[in-house]
Amino acid sequence: MAHEQAVTSPNWFEAGEHVRIEARRRDVEWLAARDNDPRTRYVPVWRNRSLVGAGEALLVTAEELGDLEVHVQSRVLLGERDGSAIFGIELDAGQEQAGSWLKNLGRLADLREVAGELDRASAAVLAHARAMAFWHKQHRYCGACGAPTEAREGGHVRACLGESCGKSHFPRTDPAVIVLVAREDRCLLGRSNGWPPGLFSTVAGFVEPGESIEDAVRREVAEETGIVIGAVDYQSSQPWPFPSSLMLGFQAHALTTEITIDPHEIEDAAWFNRDELVEQTLAGTLKLPRGVSIARRLLDEWFDECGISLAERLGVAG
Ligand SMILES: [Zn+2]
Q: Which of 100, 105, 168, 297 has the CA that lies 20 to 30 A from 261?
């Protein structure tokens, strides 16, 4: 059942309704014409915050953008939807005026906090815009020679302006693994230092250079909890633009049960059976990861294996 779901149901922040129209990124005339096209829409990002309306992303027109155009620091062709070109725009974080203007139009919010209130297409387009805005902000200078860079190809490349360099820089995504470790009727959850009280989640960490994702899963589980795992099964993946990760979700079978935490990595880890997870969550002593996260999806799928719906048991919308 877990495998069927992984194929049919997308995770949050993926499966946007905007089509990425890659070929248009190099079509300079077409891009220029979009400036004067009243159908063009912009997805603003300011200080990593996104603009939302009632239950959806708020896309703005050039007219609404008005004088704020001067504070646009990067502009990215995200794609096209219903005949409208959609651009992500990064507004100058140093300009309070940009934030105030956006607040007149809607709510400026951290996408991670509000995604669950939005439709999935909105969450996906905001995630795309936020990730690209972050990348531009981090790559204004060439990492090879230090000269300024300039956006090209609809904002999907930054070219170094250094005369003897001219290197092209491309958007980066950092792979991270996230794994639900299970053994018999129990699963392993842990909590990091500084998390909200009661919150427990699946083990996660970044893939290191020179490491396969399977190696990363084994290393992270062993480092954080001392548990040795056997088979590692891929489940699904999720773009996680906070700021630039791709979460690769797994389920793994534990070969050992004795937990030894690394206090530098996490502050607690424990085994829970399904009833304990439900009872402690309903009692308010345990907090599970947010519904929009792949961590929650991994838990949902682990419950599904026994024909139990975690959402139903908790009395929340699936
Ligand atoms: Zn350079």
A: 297
Model confidence pTM above 0.90: yes
Cα 62 to Cα 27, 56, 67, 121, 251: the distances in Å are 20, 19, 9, 22, 46
CA atoms of 232 and 250, how far apart (whole Å)? 7
pLDDT of residue 9: 79
Q: How far is the CA of 139 from the centre of ligand 1 (A)?
A: 11
Task: Determine the distance separating the centroid of ligand 1 and the alpha carbon of 138, expressed in angstroms.
Answer: 14
For residue 141, how far is its CA from the centre of ligand 1 (angstroms)? Answer: 8
